[in-house]
Every structure is written in C-alpha cells, then in structure tokens.
Amino acid sequence: MNNKKIHTQLIILDNEEINSSHFRLHIELPADCPHIQPGQFAEFYVPPTLQSFLRIPLSIHFVSDKEIQFLIQIKGEGTQYLKTLQKGDKIDTILPLGKGFTIPTNKKVALIGGGCGIAPLLFLSDQLAANNNLQHIFLGFRNYEQVMLIDDFKKYGEVIVSTDDGSFGDKGVITDIFEKKLEKFDYVYSCGPTIMINKVIEICKHNNLYCEVSLETLMGCGIGACLCCAISTKNGNLRACIDGPVFDSNLINNLNY
Amino acid sequence: MNITVEIGKLKLKNPILTASGTFGYGQEFEDFFDPSILGAIITKGTTLEPREGNNYPRMAETSAGMLNAVGLQNKGVHYFINEILPAIAKYQTNIIVNVAGNAVEDYVETVSLLNNIDRVDAVELNVSCPNVKHGGMQFGTNYDLLKELLQKVRKTYNKTLIVKLSPNVTKIEDFALLCQDEHADAITVANTYLGMAIDINTMKTKLATITGGLSGPAIKPITLRMVYQCAQVVNIPIIASGGIISWQDAIEYLLAGASAVQIGTANFINPSISQDILHGIEQYLLQKNIKNIKEIIGAMKSN
C-alpha cells in the first residue's frame, strides 16, 4: 500500500539555475508531510494554457529536514512556468506519490543516471549513504554543458561521469562504462532515457544483478485512478504512478516508447 | 435546503457523481476527501473477463482537454465482487458499477452476477467506450444492436439501470428515446468524443490506438447541447457527463435538464473537486433562495 498523500500549497524557498536547460526548485517541507521515499514524485498544478491543463508529475530530487528539491528540465509550457517561480511564491502540490526505491543496509550498490534522470538518484544516494551502503555512481550526459551536480553526488560515493562527445569525463554512453566497470553489485538503480534503461536492464539480466528502474510516462491523474500510465510487465499492465514509478527490472517488458 | 435527487430506484443525497474511469474505485481519493459525501460512486468500467487494456501511450493532452485510450483495463467482474467491493462497501453512498462487454452475452452475464449483490445499487451500461475493438461504442451507435442489448439486459437486471450514451451519433435523442422505451431507468449523456492527435516531430499518432476519447472542458458546450436535446424528448432522468470543472458547469447542466452530474477529467487536476463543486452548488442555491434543487432541473429559459 502506498503511503498517505497530501494536497497542499507549498512555498518556494529558492529557484536555482543549474544550466541553460535545468533548474532546481527548493520548496518548503510542509510540517504535515508524510515520510518521503527516494523515487517518489509530486504533481504540480500550473496555470492552464490553451495547450495543457493537467498536472505535471516530477520526481523528488532531494529531501532535507527543511526542504524538498526538484531538479527540472525545461521542456514545455509547464516547466517554463515553474522556471519563473521565485522565493515566496506558492505552488499547488500533491505528494508524495508512487513507490520508491528499496534501501538496503551494508551493501555494494551502483546507480546509473542519464541526463535529467539523475534527479531522483540524489536523494536515493543520500539515503543509501545513511544506511552504510558502498556506492558506485555512474552519470551520463550529452556534453560538458549538460554535466551537472557531480559534486553533490561525490559526497556519497565514487562518481564516474561520461559524455557522448567526450567533452567531460569518459567518452561514450554511460551504460558502456557501467558494463566495463561491472562488479558484483548487490543492487543496481537506474533512471534516465528509455534507451538507457533498456540497456541497464539487459546488462543486469545478463549478469544476474538485482536492479530497480524508475520509469517516466505520461500521466493523467498520478494517483492510480485513470490507468493512462500503463507499463507492460510480466504481471500485466501496471500503473507507473502507483505500482511504480520504481519497478524491479525483472518485471519490465522491453520499453518501446 | 433539499439537494436530494432520484435516479430510478436510487435516492441520491446530492446530484454529484464521479464518472467511470476517472475515480478508480474511490479508494485512490481517500486521502483527499471522503467519497461517502458523493451522491454515488461510479466504478471503473467492468467486464466479464479481465482485460489488459491498450498499449502505451494511452493519453494525450489537447486544447482544454485530453484524449484517452485506456481500453477498459480491469480485473473482471468476479475480482470486483470478491476483492474490490468488500473494500469500498464502507462508503455511505450508492455504488454504481459501470459495465462493458464485447458481446450481448457478456453484458447479460455480468449484470446477472451484479443483480444478486446487495451493495451494488445500480449498473451503468457502457455502450459508448470508443477505445475497444469489439463491443463498446459499437452498441451505442447502432440502434438495432442497442435495442437487442437493452431488451436482454433489462430482462436480467431488476435494479436501477442507467445507459451511458455515445455522443458519436447523428441524433442522440433517438438513442435516448430507445433507452426510455426499453425501460432503462436513466441515461448518462454522454461518453467521450472520438478524436485523435499527432506528434509533428516524430510524425506518430499520440495514441497507440490512433484514435481515442476526448474529454475535459473542451467538450462541455457540445455535451450540454445534447443534454438539452435529450431532456426535450425523454421523461427518465438524465445524468450529465462532459467536461465539468466547476460548480458553475454543474449548474448549467442541471438547468439544461440533467438531474445529476458526473465529474470526470477534473478529478485529475484537483482530486477533491467533487467536494468543491458540491459546496459551490449549495452556496448557489442558498444565494438564489432556492429550497429544492429540483426547482432548477430543466429550468433554463431561452434568451
């Protein structure tokens, strides 16, 4: 069963520019906020436009005792609106939603993130560290300009970075680097583009590694009612919003979207 | 103030219902408000056998609306009766099961099972789902087929029978009259409108099924017109369903002749919107000094 959810107005504490296409929203942690697991998400209400009026689901990036953070890529009208929010503004939010990652104790783990898919991995990394897990963190980006938050992750473990064009870190896709540096990881976690997730699932399957992936889909309601966010699994179509967004990779049929 | 309304044998404490497929089974909304405050809960479309539904992507946002093509994913009527109903029986309101099928026999078998379940107060016959290959909208857009279906279902099902009509017809009044003639207790006007959308970058259709059902505020004026047209020809109650996002929208539907309204897509934007709409209607009646909500049903005047 998923934990309790709240629907509330939250106060923006800071809007931090990360690079030309990403920013990080710092939002006040409400006093009545239920426990948040890494991998869970929130749904923001943004003023409707002629093109869109549904809520925007965004994964929770980091949680401290004072704030909740969201790492956001500017994609459409909704995220452009969120970019304009400033300290003191309010945002209508539903959270925490979905099922998060499993947090073991005293294990050797690997995290593989691509692009803005690194968003939920920072809080995951924080919680893994708090439970004494040894972490290898693989982060892939398109190019130097897109590389972000390396120092944030370095606090928690060994960070390996790659860029597609080699302008920073190793050259190549991060899944190739991960495969080359493969060890007997007890847990593997991944979030990023579909092509990357499929590759991570394949590598883990081939090497018999337990893996959890966080999947992104279009969502209607975000709370399990509309069944729009179907993920094809060995157990039939499941809902990304409530059965996920984090899934045991063994369950997932090849993602083709 | 009296805001109760009657739909067939059902007495609703208020005219606010939730549209099938937008409210799960109510449990998903418990953190936001108590579903017991509603006039009724209408469940996700339920079929005789479990259905996996359509492939992803199943939705697309459009101007003031959304397309969906879920395809009646559900675990079947037996699972509903044995696993879901016991968990939602606690709600102190009517439970209406939305029933869909591929063939007449599927509908008949499903409603005959539900006929014996005390806690199921009514059935809403879904003859208008645009997202399944067989059955669904085929029944709601074919007069003779619908007639056969209604005759067989009515023989089997003794409790309140509501028929959810398809708006994808030339003259919805004909179908409304057919429902009345075949002894349906009420009609829901209407399901979603067949539509589509294309991603111009990938040049792919936005839905895996190419077409899907359009809902949301974009459709409200069209469905409002259909509610009005049906209200001119039938005496059985009309339940309006189409793009309601505010209490004002709900009042418009009542004025056009609906006895109750269903809140659908708006549940996705504000999960407690049904509660807000109920309060809005009460305030409206109070301000207009209207003692009984029935006074405004069909009370629209022409300009």
Describe the protein's architecture and organization:
The complex is a heterodimer of chains A (about 260) and B (about 300). Chain A has helices spanning about 75-85, 120-130, 150-155, 175-180, 195-205, and strands spanning about 5-20, 20-30, 40-45, 55-60, 60-65, 65-75, 90-95, 110-115, 135-140, 160-165, 170, 185-190, 210-215, 230-235, 235-240, 245-250. Chain A has about 260 residues and is an alpha/beta fold. Chain A is globular and about 45 Å long. The relative contact order of chain A is 0.15. With about 300 residues, chain B is α/β, with parallel strands linked by helices. Chain B has a single domain, classed as Aldolase class I (TIM Barrel, Alpha-Beta Barrel). Helix content of chain B is about 30%, strand content about 20%. Chain B has nine helices and 16 strands. Chain B has helices spanning about 75-90, 105-115, 135-140, 145-155, 170-180, 220-235, 245-255, 265-270, 275-285, and strands spanning about 5, 10, 15-20, 40, 60, 65-70, 95-100, 120-125, 160-165, 185-190, 195, 200, 205, 210-215, 240, 260-265. In chain B, helix 7 (about 245-255) links the parallel strand 15 (about 240) and strand 16 (about 260-265). Chains A and B meet through strand 14 of A and strand 5 and helix 8 of B.
Features:
heterodimer, A: 257 residues, alpha/beta, Elongation Factor Tu (Ef-tu), domain 3, Rossmann fold, seven-stranded antiparallel beta sheet, seven-stranded mixed beta sheet, 18% helix, B: 303 residues, TIM Barrel, eight-stranded parallel barrel, 9 helices, 16 strands, 31% helix
